[in-house]
Every structure is written in structure tokens, then in C-alpha cells.
Amino acid sequence: MTTPFLVASIFLLGLSSLTTAANFTQVFESNEIIDFEWPSEEIKSQVLEDGTFKPEHMYPIFMAVYGTRIFFSLYKIRPGTPVTLVSLPTSNASSAPPKLTPFPSWDMHKTGDCNKIEEAKGLEVDSVGRLWVLDEGSYNCNCKIWTIDLIKNDHHTKLIHRFSFLHSLHDLVLDETPNGTFAYIARRYDFNIVVFSLERNQSWIVDTPGKRVNSIALSPKNQEARTLYLYEPFSKELNSISVAEVRKGTRTANPKAIGNWSAETYRMLMDNRGTIYATFWGRNFINSWNTSQPFEVQRFYEDAGLELDFDQFAFTFALDQSETLWMTVLDWNRQPKYRLLKAAVGAKSYIFEASQVSE
């Protein structure tokens, strides 16, 4: 039987800008397949029978944390995931394994309905408490962006933009400036990034000649010359472009090579001390680099017992507003299958200025 929300100490090695060593606690583990909070048992039985819900295909890939809630987008690699944006409480007094709540509601999810959330991808929470959600759309519906006001009890869910293309969205970062908010979006394996201006409700393509882009990160808010970091798949190369260049509306930016990650990355995370973290396909570790120093990869975390195929991933992570790093561990071959860990690390997301962090 699972024991959710048990506490266990885990030692995290190789932290660069956060701390020299962080003590992780285990918030919960689950040997069982994570389930949903269903409207009724009749509906659950029906979707299990018709194959709409296959609980063994539930894989969290993107993550955001705000207040007392954690948000996940679920990797829709196989059929059987009825909704792809869900939430969990950060704590729970119940003795039962935690269940996923479709977010913001069951009614807001339907594949093939262009006015619903169809396939959530990258997630980000801005400084005013809005959850930004990339939506892959479907064969009938173009990609889009949603915002959900987490302060106003989720009642303000807005479809803020429809893109002119189908498919290929991956992850996003937010650039909040005195002149407006920009989202920089990575598409899968395209030779460009997408820029979206919230105030103008406009998006445009910025070509990155000769460089494909998969994952994306943004340097901390307080830096004078902010930098976008772009991961080039296949070559494992980390590149950079100037944010100032992108803001002013350029349609072509030439990425500058920085160095190579040690494997194929699917997710990058930047803290407000300037350290970037990367998770990898088929690898049992997370690496980091302190961007204020010459490029040198550090081993941030490693689970020696994880065994992964080349197309499997083990981790997703997020920083909250209380200087806590949250991380999930997905074990494809052992029990417990799911673990949620957290650690007080003394740093927030790149969204916040470094001066706001207590030493």
C-alpha cells in the first residue's frame, strides 16, 4: 500500500547557485497508478471500458507551482489521457494516494474543440499570479495560449491568442518589461522561435538560421542585457541570443554557441541567481550551469537506480515563490513509480529579481 506524504531525506549534489547542499524531503510516493478526481464512478467505469482513460499512460512532463497548488501538463504520448492540465495540493492530510484534479475544470478540456484545452504543454506562472498554458491544439485546431488567474479562484480563464500554425509547441518563458509582457516559445525541432506580445495580442516568428530549437530558458529579470538560451537538439548544443534584439521586432536572430549539454534535453529551468538546469531524455540525472561563469556542466542530481530507454524521461521541476524547488521523479521500471520531492533552496524563478531573495 502506498504511503503518501511521507517524509524522507534525500541529499542533492552539485548545486551551483542555490546552495552547496540541499536537503530534499519526499512529499509523497505512489506505487499505484495516479488517478483522477472523477465526477462519478459511472463516468470512470465508462472511460476505462472504452479506452479513453488508460491510467498507465499518465506521465507529468511540465510543471508549475503557485501558492498551495502544483500544476502539471501530462505527456500525451499514447492514447488514454482524457485531460492534459491537472493540479495537486502541495500538502494533504488524507491517508489515500493523491488524485489529479483536471484544471481549471473537466468542462474546459476536449480534444477537437478549438475553444477548449486540447493538449497542454509548457507552463509558467507570472509575477501577478497568472498561469500561462501552451496548448498544442489538434489536427483541426491551431495552437493557442491560455492564461488562468490563480488569485481570482480560477474564474478568469482566457484564451488569449491563437497561432497561425498547427502543432509543434513545446515550452515557453516570460519576459515582463515596463513596456509589456512577451512570451518566447520553443517549437519542437524548428529553425525558429515564436514571440508573443500580450499587450498587442500579436505573435511572430524569429528565424534562427542553421539552429533548430527544442528547449528554452531566460536569464534573470535583473540582468541589464537579458539573454535567451536555446537548446539545439541532435548536436546537444546550447546557444544564446539577445533579448533586446528579439523585443525590437527582428525576424532573424543568429544564435551564438556556448557549449554542449551531455545528452538530449527536453526541459531547462533558470533560477534568479543565474543558474540553468537541464533534464534529459534517457538519462537518470539533472545537470546545471552557473551562467555567470564560463560554461562548465555540473551534476545537479542523480538517481543511480533509474534505468531509462532513450525515449523516456524521469524528471520535471519548478521553483515556487517561497524559494522552494519541487521535483517529480518518474520510475518506469521500479516501485514506487511516482515521487514528489521538495527542498528549500533560497532561490526563486527567473521571473523574480535576485534582490528579492533572502541570503
What's a concise summary of this model?
The chain has 359 residues and is mainly β.
Beta percentage is 35-45%
Distance between the termini: 41 Å
Q: What structural class do you assign from the helix and strand content? A: mainly beta
**How does the major sheet shape up?**
5 strands, antiparallel
Strands of the largest sheet, in order across it? Answer: 1-2-25-24-23
Q: Low-confidence parts, pLDDT < 50 over ≥5 residues? A: 1-21, 355-359
H-E order? EEHEEEEEEEEEEEEEEEHEEEEEEEE
Commentary on this structure:
The chain is mainly beta and 359 residues long. Helix content is 4%, strand content 41%. It has helices at 41-50, 243-247, and strands spanning 9-12, 22-30, 60-66, 69-74, 85-89, 101-102, 120-125, 130-135, 144-149, 157-162, 169-177, 180-187, 192-197, 202-207, 216-218, 227-232, 237-242, 256-260, 265-270, 275-280, 285-290, 298-302, 315-319, 324-330, 338-344. The protein has a five-stranded antiparallel sheet with strand order 1-2-25-24-23, with no helix packed on it. It has a four-stranded antiparallel sheet with strand order 3-4-5-6, with no helix packed on it. β11 (169-177) and β12 form a beta hairpin. The longest helix has 10 residues, at 41-50. The radius of gyration is 19 Å and the shape is globular.
